[in-house]
Amino acid sequence: MKTLKLGENTFKLAWSIIKDLKASEYIGVLKCIQCGMCTSVCPAARHTDLDPRVISKRVLDNDENLISDDLIWNCFYCYSCHSVCPVNNSVCEINQILRQKAIKKGNGIPEIAPFSNYAENFLEFGLGSIPINFFDELVQDIGEDWLQLKVDLEDIRAELGLAPLTLPEEDVQDINKILEKTGFKNRLGKIKRVKG
Amino acid sequence: MKKIPDKEILLFKSCLVNLEYPGVESSTRYLFDKLDIEYIVSNRQSCCTGLGHYTDLFDQFSTTAIAARNFAVAREEGHKNIATLCSTCYAILKKSCNILNKNEEVRNKINNIFETSGLGNMEYIEDEMKSKDNIFHVAEILYSKSTEIENIFKIDLSHFKVASHHACHYCKAHHKDTIGNARDPMILETLANACGLDTVDWYDRKTNTCGNGFRQRYLNKDLSLSVTNEKLLSLKENDVDILLHMCPNCQMQFDRNQKYIGRSQATEFNIMHLNISQLVALALGADPYRVVGVQTHTVSLDPILKELKKKSID
Ligand code: SF4
Ligand code: SF4
To answer: Do B213 and A142 touch (CB under 8 A)?
Structure first.
């Protein structure tokens, strides 16, 4: 009888995905049967060349080029594929992990640099927000009323009986200490250097 | 069905509710008060990192550490049942909770960060929070009170045809914990029916994502809005007046972009967008400006306001 020998690197990419912190506990990367259910519900597949079934196949083919393939940046992170896969695979999570690999490699950094103002505000206030660099285009698309809303926000919140948006200074400092030690501040530094 | 709490609730604030539709929070508070749901809001709670996380800016470890800190805040405030206003907060917190419970290495690393930052009191103990037992979406809490809502709703809005947009990060990301079937979720319809409204229970694009796609709206606008357009066309075909939301990001995608999409397609969409808390609050008699926050919407809610006026005169 002939035995098919699989080298230890055969599923290297697949295993690195399975072991990633982002991957769900029971992610079925190795169980993909190429049924195409994921593709049938994927909004990116309807409008771009991203095809989740093919992403899954390329992972199983150990195709490391995926990490520098622009296609992975078309995903909406809508989890539609994830919710219908009969073997608990999740191309949604695979794409998230591949993008992190691209960021680590460096080629992914320009894709996330435009959002760095989100992180700056998070560190300053402990709160999320839409990055300021997108405001001009949003005002153009949505209308001046949207900008006026930003100006009037505190008054409207007061009218609705809602408190001003601030965390106590001590808590903001704690968040900064935590994000320093998780390595996030260092990561942000790298991202901002690419932007500048 | 999972057990849904009505006390010791931390109402978890959301960045896009804070900044875009604050009326979603005030409507929810109004309803929780009316329905005797015991809750607090804490100004020590930080945002979940969601928009940063799903634009790939935040790494999973940092997001999980921030979640562990917010879990500690909930515990210290004596309210460890979290109810989120946003579906992405819901997905992020559930994911982080699962990681903290199942991954000892990560848990120890985060506890070590707390310890060496003078935050030893924030230590996360395995299983002290359970994704299924302690983390909910506000819509689920309201859903568990559908019968009470049916008994106390005051204003008949049955004039309007309603459909739902159950946010992906609620119904698909942790689909095993979704109430009902993730492929045809019905909690928003059930709540609308409890307020006497008729619902379009199924339409072609019901399970379509909103199109925001985090980075896509900002960096690939055409792609993002083509997906939004598909859903708008399907709603228009079904003569829907109001689309019900449970996520401020989806609500923003539709409400803020609808006119723009209409202009670029040379068609007109007259679909109003309301969060489920806003709709139920209106049906229970809440003030549109001082509770529901209609003044922050882009698509005019005049037809609803007119109907409310008529009803108060009748
Ligand atoms: S739905 Fe699952 S099994 Fe089917 S092709 Fe997609 S990833 Fe593979
Ligand atoms: S998460 Fe990405 S790959 Fe999956 S269905 Fe949505 S857009 Fe497609």
So the answer is: no
Domain count, chain B: 2
Among B15, B26, B14, residue whose Cα is nearest residue A160: B26
Contact A100, B59 (CB under 8 A): yes
Cβ contacts of residue B139 below 8 Å, gap of 6+? B170, B187, B188, B191, B246, B276, B277
Establish if B107 belongs to a structural domain. Answer: yes
Interface test with A, best of B32, B47, B204 (most A CBs within 10 A): B47
Total beta-carbon pairs less than 8 A apart between chain A and chain B? 206
Domains of chain A: 12-107 (1.10.1060.10), 111-195 (no CATH)
Final residue belonging to a domain, choices B137, B163, B179: B137
Same domain, B120 and B191: no
CA of A170 to the centre of ligand 1 (A): 47
- pLDDT tens across B275-301, in order? 999 999 999 999 999 999 999 999 999
Amino acid at B245: H
Residue B18 sits in the same domain as residue B68 = yes
Max intra-chain CA distance, chain A:
79
Q: Residue B303 carries which side chain, given as an amino acid letter?
A: P
Q: Based on the domain organization, do B283 and B160 belong to the same domain?
A: yes
ipTM: 0.96
Smallest Cβ–Cβ distance between A141 and the set B211, B257, B293 belongs to B257
Asked whether the whole model's pTM tops 0.95, one would answer yes
> Do B98 and B202 sit in the same domain of this protein?
no
Same domain, B100 and B216: no
Which ligand is the nearest neighbour of the Cα of A53?
1
Residues of chain B in contact with residue A150, where contact means CB-CB under 8 angstroms, are: 19
Q: How many angstroms separate the Cα of A64 from the Cα of each of A14, A95, A101, A140? A: 10, 13, 10, 40
Last residue of a domain, one of B87, B102, B137: B137
B40 located within any domain: yes
Are residues B153 and B283 in contact, defined by beta-carbon separation less than 8 angstroms?
yes
* Minimum CA distance residue for ligand 2 atom 6: A78
Phi, psi for B9 (deg, rounded to 5): -100, 130
Q: Residue A157 and residue B135: Cα distance in Å, rounded? A: 26
Residue entry with tokens 């994000």: A179
Domain extent for B273:
154-308
Residues B167 and B278 in one domain: yes
Q: Going residue by residue through chain A (196 aa), what tens digit of pLDDT does each one get? A: 666 666 668 899 999 999 999 999 999 999 999 999 999 999 999 999 999 999 999 999 999 999 999 999 999 999 999 999 999 999 999 999 999 999 999 999 999 999 999 999 999 999 999 999 999 999 999 999 999 999 999 999 999 999 999 999 999 999 999 999 999 999 999 999 985 4
Q: What is the DSSP string of B151-216?
A: HH-----TTSEEEEE--HHHHTTTGGGSSS-TTS--HHHHHHHHTT-EE----TTTT---S-TTHH
